[in-house]
Amino acid sequence: MLTKLTGGRLFDPANGRHGEVADLWLRDDRVVTDPGPGATPDAAHDVTGKVVMAGAIDIHSHIAGGKVNLARLLMGEEHDRHRFAGHACGCGGGSGIATPSTHATGARYIEMGFTAAFEPAMLGSNARHAHLEMSDIPYIDTGGYLVLGNDDFLLDLIATNAGQSAVNDYVAWMLTATQSLAVKVVNPGGINAFKFNARKLDLDEAGPHYGVTPRSVLTVLARTVYELGLPHPLHVHGCNLGVPGNVATTLDTIRAAAGLPMHMTHIQFHSYDTAGDRKFSSGAAALAEAVNRTPTLSVDIGQVMFGQTVTASADTMAQRHTAPLAHPRKWLAMDIECDAGCGVVPFRYRDNSYVNALQWAIGLELFLLLDDPWRVFLTTDHPNGAPFTFYPELIRLLMDRDYRLAKLAEIHPDAPAHTTLGSITREYTLAEIAIMTRAAPARILGLADRGHLAPGASADVTVYSDLADRRAMFERPDLVFKSGRLVVRGGTLVAMASGCTHVVRPGFDDLIERRIARHFDERIGLPIKHFRIQDAEIRHGAGPQLHPCQRREVP
Amino acid sequence: MTFHPDTLCPFCGLGCGDIGIDLDESGITPRPTGCPQADRLFRRSAAVPTDARMDGNAVSMDDAIAEAARLLGTSAAPLIAGLAADVDGVLSALSLAERIGATVDHERSDALFRNLAVLRRFGWSVTTLAELRNRCDLVLVVGPDPATAFPRVWERWVAPEPALVPGGARSVVFLGGEPLPETVQCLGSRIEASGLGSDAGPDLAALVGRLRAALAGRTADGDPMTALASRLCAARYVVVIWAAGLFDNPQPDLIVEGLVRLIRNVDGTTRCAGLPLSGADNVIGANQACGWRTGFPLRTGFNAGAPLHDPERFDWRTRLCDADVTLWISAFRPEMPPFATGGSVIMLAPPELAVTTEPALFIPVGTPGIDHAGDVFRADSVVALHTGALIDRGLPSVAAVIGRILSVLAETADSKEEAEC
Questions:
Q1: Do B295 and A79 touch (CB under 8 A)?
Q2: Closest-CA residue in chain B for A91?
Q3: Are residues B188 and B251 in the same domain?
Q4: Helix (H, G, I), strand (E, B), or coil: what is residue A498?
């Protein structure tokens, strides 16, 4: 199948193209060079004047696994109100906005021109479930980040000074066994400490039982990820999420990395200062300044948007503090398998609440004060800050200052005084949006053939009309191709497709397996072989897509 | 003869991964485990009839599939129940349900819904089996001994010394139920107290209420509940275990809600979590798959293509009365509950099943973990396990059979469309 897109303006920052007019050729599932005058395309689309980008990639979106499925159960009222029939193309129906069912998740993403989304909190003990769910999401590529840093096995390795190489082998073994793409740490040591009844744990506070500090968990794991040569740096959900004054902890965390690469996720929730009568203000300026001058650091925002959603997190410690604010008034918490935990708290962000309004403003402030779009990613921490379907609205807020100021005027009247948002004139360009949602995510995850449009790239392509209303533009692309197949036309699904699951597989010394096997027999109560996920289990036998790791030594 | 050690058991929901299986030309035999379910259900003969039956007469698989598609495709009020299958089987059943507008429910969903009712309106705080094994110093068992339904729960998860409890001490208290003799033998002196309010048919909701009153400081000093409340507050990590399926009381979800409130109260000062057990024949996996595919739990139907959930109206026992065609799926055990329906029944079950009333159509299927690989969920709902294949008896999986039915339905739809064009 040969497809030609004629006359579009290509926004392909990975290849230095920022709106140049060029034809784009797709053969089967790949972008190819112009096959020459003799070639006759099977399908030709005139996209003159339209904006052509690679498919967008969401690096942090809770779309699959135990906590998401529990959140669906808890959000019954919303699911009752939002039910969808299946589509003639074969995409099934479903329900939900903040916690859409699998087919609805794939459909909503592809309708917006996204061709990949990554589940950022996959517990080892729940990995098989997460993979079963991810393979039931049509259209988009997926992959999971393995949550480590609260598992009793790792804390025991650190507490007993087993050494960096033992930790490296354990992490590599776990990534392999759970078919993961990256490593995430959530409230390092804090979820474990909560199981021993600690209700808070600061960066330099020794946790109960193991006597290990969050700082040591963080630095050991950051070093492991670096030495194993994983493409994606350690994905960090820091300590003290949501606590006023936590920007100090976040700045300490940046310093703790000591030059090792690190990705700090949903930093909006970690950017709070304590100025003003309400002891709650924006710490965005200080944090943005620190990120700007630390080139080894990347961040995503976790933007808050107003409305009903649900927060789902492995951070049981933080979620217990949020629980009294639940809306509707119900919540659940879970301790999980000497591994981690999960907390699910429905939440409604209101623009007439001082705190929520400021959270919204802090997120935008961060987007606009961070000067390198290659190191900042568009996220709402779906569904924690807002459902991912708010991305087009968020893009408009970033690209349109007048619109932003109009919205700023609508929020709680005391909030604007405690942020710098009103004074920021920056407007994101289309090229910057293409970096932030395509080129940069592919690069930070090590997906060499995604996020760009050079020959050899996966034929994941989105075509937009260049509308002044950027929300309308990004809400409803004209054409979306997944692996070369036209799946969305004029905002409507026209064909079914499935993506693939991305994983890494750094090697490890087999000796570690004996120690892990003993742990499984004595503690977990399950022979190790039943924990390991085989390739044949991924996407009904299709197997995963492997990405190379390059071992490195810390200089 | 070959020996398969460490085989995974898919039956009760505890997910024991240590079953030894002997395989020879006559079939498979489990080495005794002390679990009556594994010992019985892993015993299968190699030679079984693999023919499908229509009204009791052997027919080819092609004919059986065509007849199933015809019955289901023309049904006005179809029901897909039993639903005892691996995750792939359940997902294919959901695709079929969406295609024909059927409602789905699992044979053993009663226990699940007693818990879900509370989860959905109130939330809860729960834990998993490995946390119980390693971290828990006080186990509070509420109601009948869960070992009735989960035979090795004490041996595997409570008898071992808890590695993360200093000194390794652990106590078990039974409230409103007596431990089985096997449980007493397994746990010995760890059973600190039993028989608290275990008179015949104890009012569990009232017992839980009394314990909550004691926690609030509203009981007298001599009341046994006062002492128990103190024990809960003094423990490091309390796990409250119940098997809601065994509750023989009116409004069992109110007992569960009382327990969740009690857990939340204790968890405010020390650590305390629940462990609601329900899970035989992959009912948890069926509910999980239904949750991610439709956004709703089991007892969901499809109305004009969109899912619709109703925990009362779509209970399979209720729907059986008005269903004109019932697809009954029971891949795990050659057993079925008594049921009566005025409609036709298509049965997907192991060939060993001795039917009481011959269904309109019987299609033999394999058992996940015996005849084919498949995923099942453990009773604590977090851990999914991949069971392997032990023996090839020429029996298809539920997913394979339903996949063929769906293909026939799609062909029929295509030819109809062409005819209309």
A1: yes
A2: B95
A3: yes
A4: coil
Compute how many other C-beta atoms are within 10 angstroms of the C-beta atom of residue A7. 15
Specify the pLDDT at position B192: 86
pLDDT at B193: 73
Contact B126 A534 (CB under 8 A): no
* Same-domain status, B243 and B198: yes
Nearest 5 degrees, angle CA A327-CA B121-CA A122?
A: 75
From B243, B278, B313, the end of a domain falls on B278
End residue of a domain, out of B278, B302, B325: B278
> How close A88 comes to chain B (CA, Å)?
11
Residue B291 counted as domain residue:
yes
Position B67 pLDDT exceeds 60: yes
* Whether CATH 2.30.40.10 fits A2-54+449-493: yes
Chain A residues within an 8 Å CB radius of B8: 530
Percentage of chain B surpassing pLDDT 70?
97
Question: Residues 320-339, chain A: which have Cβ within 8 Å of B?
Answer: 326, 330-339
What is the pTM (predicted TM-score) of this model?
Answer: 0.98
Three-state DSSP class for B372?
strand
At A478 the pLDDT is: 98
* Predicted ipTM of the assembly: 0.97
Residues of chain B with Cβ-Cβ distance to A529 below 8 Å are 6, 17
State percent of chain A over pLDDT 90. Answer: 97
CA distance A261 to chain B (A): 32
Give the tokens for residue A478: 């004209």
State which residue of chain B sits closest to A66, comparing Cα positions.
B382
Q: What number of helices (H) and strands (E) belong to chain B?
A: 13, 21
Percent of chain B at pLDDT exceeding 90: 90
Tokens of A82: 């939002």
Give yes or no for A529 touching B (CB within 8 A).
yes
Q: Say how far apart CA A363 and CA A147 lie, in whole Å.
A: 24
Please compute the mean of the pLDDT values over residues A492-515 and round it to a whole number: 96
